[in-house]
Amino acid sequence: MGDKTSQARSVLVTGASRGIGAAVALACARAGWDVAVNYARDEAAAERVAREVRAMGRRAIHMQADVADESAVLAMFARVDAELSPLRGLVNNAGIVDAMARVDQTSLARLQRMFAINVFGSFLCAREAVLRMSTKHGVNAKGPPGSGRGGAIVNLSSVAAKLGGPGWYVDYAASKGAIDTFTVGLAREVAAEGIRVNAVRPGIIDTDIHASGGQPERAHQSAALIPMQRPGTADEVAEGVLWLLSDAARYTTGAILDVSGGR
To answer: DSSP secondary-structure letter at 232?
Structure first.
């Protein structure tokens, strides 16, 4: 699935208006994918990413959808079906982090929002992707049941799933731990149906997600914690995601790839 001469196929990247998601969308376009660019709020940024995809000669659409909203997810996938080539890839990148807080300072509302987006959203999008990709019962390109052509799902986890996020955001770390388990379980569930499911576990990456957690300079301030002594880039994470989507990883499923500078 990774070269430009293969049959047209599309990938849906959630949270693709900025950071890692935008880098993944552009890397996929360079590798020959048509791209559905999902965003939550910033339409102008998502439109810029879609425009860059089209400049590479690929088809692109940009779509607003809160991945925690089931009706929005259904509408998003229906639009991909109608406007792009058959769905063969999903990158579950959409996610949030919150301000630094201990568990004894954590509200139920914060927990519900964190898990709704980071976990439930990934489940909903993966469900819809499997319903289209599965060679056993999937329906792709308006074909009959069983017409799914297979595909690949890549979930975005975090090294926080291993480290626990103490004193920072245990809730975020726990949501990403759930993604790790989800990745392994779904991979085994659909392995015989032409679908591979893997995850990338970034470490400290220099993107603006840190600002949304109230720590805009965290990536560079934390360099001493990283064995390679620098934060990663969104493009470095995107390269790992692209490999897992590609045929180069055709015998890889249920894997979790750390892109963390050794952390």
So the answer is: B
- Reported CATH class of domain 10-259: alpha beta
- Which whole-number Å values give the CA distances from 241 to 115, 178, 217, 237, in the listed order? 22, 19, 25, 6
Q: How confident is the model at residue 2 (pLDDT cuts 50, 70, 90)?
A: very low
| pLDDT at residue 108, rounded to an integer | 98
Residue by residue, what is the 3-state secondary structure of 69-116? Answer: CHHHHHHHHHHHHHHCCCEEEEEECCCCCCCCECHHHCCHHHHHHHHH
- Rounded to 5 degrees, φ, ψ at 84 are -125, 175
Tokens of 48: 């810029």
Helix (H) or strand (E) holding 36: strand 34-39
Using a pLDDT cut of 70, give the percent of the chain over it.
Answer: 90
pTM tops 0.90, yes or no: yes
Predicted pLDDT of residue 254: 98
Three-point CA angle 240, 37, 160, nearest 5°: 45
Q: What's the CA gap between 67 and 165, in Å, rounded? A: 24
Spatial distance between the Cα atoms of 213 and 173, rounded to a whole number of angstroms: 13
What are the residue numbers of the active site? Answer: 172
Pairing status of strand 151-156 against strand 256-259: unpaired
How far is the CA of 255 from the CAs of 7, 57, 118, 177, 218, in angstroms? Answer: 26, 31, 19, 14, 28
> Tell me: the pLDDT tens digits for 117-173?
999 999 999 999 999 999 998 776 566 666 789 999 999 999 999 999 999 999 999
β-strand partners of 151: 195
